[in-house]
């Protein structure tokens, strides 16, 4: 690992840690969501710097979508406006502080006290392929095919669920000007 990778790894690690701390110190769900998103994106960056780009990108994509959905549901369904009202993310503050300090100390001690194994063999050329094979084994083709079938099913269900097409408001010959919206809210109004 080069100097740039090391600096990037430390910077992303510190930013991920700061974002994690902000999750428990900010006082609104919307701000906590943004802090958690930033922390998890930094974790995806750390995984990418560690030369597992596929997993890093998957972590970033999953976390962005998850936090986006969380923010939308907070805005739509929370009693306070958009999760911006002050609140505390901590319950049993003393107990949780003691437990988290003990767990953190145990993890740090584990990092330094565990005898880490030395690398045997050579590093694989394509880590993405290796991760895919270890996750799915001989069923890789099945899973890729299943992914395309699921995508086609979602697109087909969406198309079949809509009553009108993209150009229906322009008429059969696409000559209706101004466009007439079948729902009643025409453009010319």
Indicate the overall shape.
flat
Helix/strand order = HHHHHH
Question: What's the number of helices?
Answer: 6
- The share of residues in extended strands comes to under 5%
What is the count of β-strands? 0
Q: Mind summarizing the main beta sheet? A: none
Low-confidence stretches: none
Range of helix content: 55-70%
Distance separating the two termini? 63 Å
What is the radius of gyration computed over CA atoms, rounded to a whole number of angstroms? 25 Å
Structural class comes to: mainly alpha
Let me know the average pLDDT: 82
Brief account:
The protein is 65% helix and 0% strand. It has 189 residues and is mainly α. The mean pLDDT is 82.
Strand and helix map with partners:
Elements: H1 3-25, H2 29-49, H3 53-77, H4 93-113, H5 127-136, H6 140-161
Description:
It is a single chain. The protein has 189 residues and is an all-alpha fold. It has helices at residues 3-25, 29-49, 53-77, 93-113, 127-136, 140-161. α1 (3-25) runs antiparallel to α2 (29-49) and α2 (29-49) packs antiparallel against α3. The longest helix has 25 residues, at 53-77. It is flat, with a radius of gyration of 25 Å.
Please give a handful of descriptors for the protein shown.
single chain; 189 residues; mainly alpha; 65% helix; 0% strand
């Amino acid at each position: 690992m080069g100097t740039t990778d090391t600096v990037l790894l430390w910077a992303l690690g510190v930013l991920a840690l700061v974002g994690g701390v902000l999750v428990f110190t900010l006082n609104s769900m919307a701000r906590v969501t943004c802090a958690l998103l930033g922390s998890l994106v930094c974790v995806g960056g750390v995984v990418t710097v560690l030369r597992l780009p596929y997993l890093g990108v998957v972590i970033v994509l999953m976390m962005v979508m998850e936090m986006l959905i969380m923010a939308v549901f907070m805005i739509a369904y929370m009693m306070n406006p958009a999760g911006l009202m002050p609140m505390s993310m901590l319950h049993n503050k003393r107990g949780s502080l003691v437990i988290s300090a003990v767990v953190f100390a145990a993890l740090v001690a584990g990092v330094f006290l565990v005898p880490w194994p030395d690398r045997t063999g050579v590093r694989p050329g394509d880590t993405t392929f290796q991760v895919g094979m270890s996750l799915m084994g001989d069923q890789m083709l099945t899973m890729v095919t299943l992914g395309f079938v699921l995508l086609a099913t979602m697109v087909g269900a969406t198309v079949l669920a809509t009553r009108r097409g993209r150009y229906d408001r322009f008429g059969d010959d696409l000559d209706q000007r101004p466009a007439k919206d079948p729902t009643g809210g025409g453009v010319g109004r």
